Amino acid sequence: MIEPILTATANRATWHVGQRVSRTDTDELGTVMKINGSIKVKWDGGRTSYFRHCETANIQLPTPHH
Length: 66
Fold this sequence. Notes:
Elements: H1 7-10, E1 20-23, E2 29-35, E3 38-43, E4 48-52, E5 59-60
Antiparallel strand pairs: 1-2, 1-5, 2-3, 3-4
């Protein structure tokens, strides 16, 4: 079953370079490195991923810790 997309993930138009993001299916964190036709994320583990703005993806803004 596919996890529902969170509001923050669906509205990636407001994201900016340098912003921290997380995966929805793991605790992995990354940083938005570039935004143009796609969003480039450099993960803390060393991998790089590319996501299209309008397509479903397993990335979201991290949940703030209170």
